[in-house]
Amino acid sequence: MSNSEVLAGLSSQARGDIGEFIKTNKDGFASFDFSNPYVLLHLIKKLMTNNTRGVVGNGKGAEKWEVETVKLESYDSQAALVVLAKYYGFFRSNLNIDHTDFSD
Length: 104
What we know:
Blueprint: H1 3-15, E1 22-24, E2 30-32, E3 44-56, E4 63-74, H2 77-87
Antiparallel strand pairs: 1-2, 3-4
């Protein structure tokens, strides 16, 4: 991997926005949508899903229910910014200290 590829990846992580994955419906419920081919999937660090199903009641009055939980963790954009800032020398100190003896 070249330097420019590393910098491009870090820049993408620093600019990453999970808003690209989240869709809301008219009722305000949020869901994740990964169907867009332009979604930056390389920004996802971890994706976990959990389905829970059950039945309430019994007999003919029983009702099925289902809950799907999705957890998404993206890469830390602040960490990518720190690495980029170090690369570009933003944290270098240009402090000049005069070692003059101040005693009389």
